[in-house]
User: Fold this.
Amino acid sequence: MKPRPAQYLLRFDDLCPTMDRVRWQRFAPMIREFGICPILAVVPDNLDPDLKVIEPDPAFWGQMRQMEAAGAMIGLHGYRHLSGGRGRSLLPLHRETEFAGVSRKIQREWIRSGLAILHGHGLNPQVWVAPRHGFDRNTLAVLREEGIGLLSDGFARLPFVRGGLTWIPQQLWAPVEKSNGLWTICLHSNTATDSLVGQVEDFLRHHAAEFTSVERVLAETVPTRLSASEWLYGMAMLLRIQTSRRRKRLFARG
Ligand SMILES: [Zn+2]
Assistant:
């Protein structure tokens, strides 16, 4: 059977009322223009100083509601976007994260509070998006208990089931043309350079028809556990990313 052509998802991280609104507005019109159904990863109660760029924008929550109504999927992006956890994540890309290694009791409190805040603003969070890819088995258990069965993360070329949740893989931080598989491009509007914004626009201009939505992905595929070969493929991808990040850190230091 011929593999189906590549499909893409867009994910925007670090959305909150105090984010840099001007920088976000470089992307928001593209979502409308190209009819994209992105994952919007919203921080429920942001305390991260890096994401406190403006006074809370009164229009923020309404805009998120509008975008959800237009087809976006709301993601629960942690709780306060702090990095007090020192545990090892199921996806070890950062040493310090918000959730990995934190007790199940505290994780439950944070996830419940986060969901309540988003619900209180009229949003329907359906997918977990861990800040700094930090989460562990306790996070997965609490998410299941709280009715969140989807997670956006992981290295594979197709959605899969692990720890009782369906993982929608996220492997890219800039657009890259692929020949097959499902690829999520994660973007941070606060820090994206103008050159990256241009790349995204150009990619959308050429590939908008290949963008899908999480809902469509789930309607078209029945995720199962990863095959051994796909798992190995994912491990190789993770190792490549870890190595290139280590190299960048060394350069930054040196
Ligand atoms: Zn984040």
